[in-house]
Design a protein that fits this description.
3 helices, 17 strands
Length: 289
């Protein structure tokens, strides 16, 4: 009898924790994506899209959830796998295997992804895994990394690992900048990539929309757009410079003691970048091919 009570208590806590964990198929999930479209030499175009639950669908023996990113999703909590399906398709494809470990390979239609690191983050007081993938085979996406958070999906896009970006990654750069569950943007502790530990949102879209108003217009960066070399000048000493892309990845960071600094940006991928001078002043520039 005592063993039976312990089993019941154990199952109760197991289901309680499971109920708190966010699942990618939760019908209250809303993903907000920001898309930067580049059409050189014109200025980049910034658009926003929200994806959410639309309806349930049953195909054969399986129950699916249709979300507005145009895919059917089902989650096998016993096997710890998530599957995605085109409504016009005749079979499921693996979107994520939650049992993947560092060094494991995830095979998607466009290329292979390898788990290079594995972490975790607390969401609603429950641990969720975080995977960092890279594409060792190269291909149209090169060797850039992508992140997948258990329950939230891929940071770049909830179904990115199978369906990917537009074929021209220099021309279109989407990423999930905000996630909500049950109407709340839960904190991620510690932060996962650029989704911070206060709310599962990034402040980069706000920076872009606001146009980054500055008080000191005497700090100049040129040429803009730039293809090989960027020059930063100021009337006073520049003590530090950092350059990051639109999702917070730092491409350059260094200290200085000059009023004019030249930086080689030839190897930077095409896109929009933010230059932070003396840790406070911000300028933006576009790197062109």
């Amino acid at each position: 009898m005592k063993k039976l009570v312990l089993i019941v208590i154990s199952l109760y806590f197991t289901f309680s924790v499971s109920a708190q964990k966010i699942h990618i198929t939760d019908t209250s999930n809303v993903w907000k994506e920001m898309l930067l479209t580049y059409n050189m030499p014109n200025p980049p175009i910034l658009t926003y899209t929200s994806y959410g639950y639309q309806r349930d669908t049953t195909i054969g023996l399986f129950h699916y959830y249709r979300f507005s990113f145009g895919r059917l999703i089902r989650e096998d909590t016993f096997l710890n796998k998530v599957y995605v399906r085109d409504e016009t398709g005749d079979s499921d494809m693996l979107l994520m295997d939650y049992s993947l470990q560092v060094g494991d390979t995830f095979i998607a239609p466009n290329q292979k992804y390898r788990v290079v690191s594995l972490d975790s983050t607390l969401i609603n007081s429950v641990w969720h895994k975080v995977w960092i993938f890279t594409a060792p085979q190269g291909g149209i996406y090169g060797t850039s990394t992508i992140s997948f958070v258990e329950g939230l999906g891929c940071i770049q896009h909830p179904t990115y690992m199978l369906w990917g970006f537009n074929n021209c990654i220099e021309c279109m750069q989407p990423y999930m900048y905000c996630f909500s569950n049950n109407g709340i943007t839960p904190a991620l502790s510690p932060a996962a990539t650029f989704l911070d530990n206060t709310t599962s949102c990034s402040d980069f879209p706000k920076l872009l929309v606001d146009g980054i108003s500055l008080n000191d217009n005497s700090v100049k960066i040129f040429p803009n757009p730039a293809s090989t070399e960027l020059t930063i000048s100021a009337p006073n000493i520049i003590t530090s410079i950092s350059i990051s892309n639109s999702i917070g990845q730092v491409y350059y960071s260094d200290k200085s003691n000059l009023e004019k600094v030249k930086i080689d940006v030839a190897a930077f991928p095409a896109g929009m970048y933010f230059v932070t001078v003396n840790k406070t002043l911000v300028r933006k520039f576009v790197k062109e091919l």
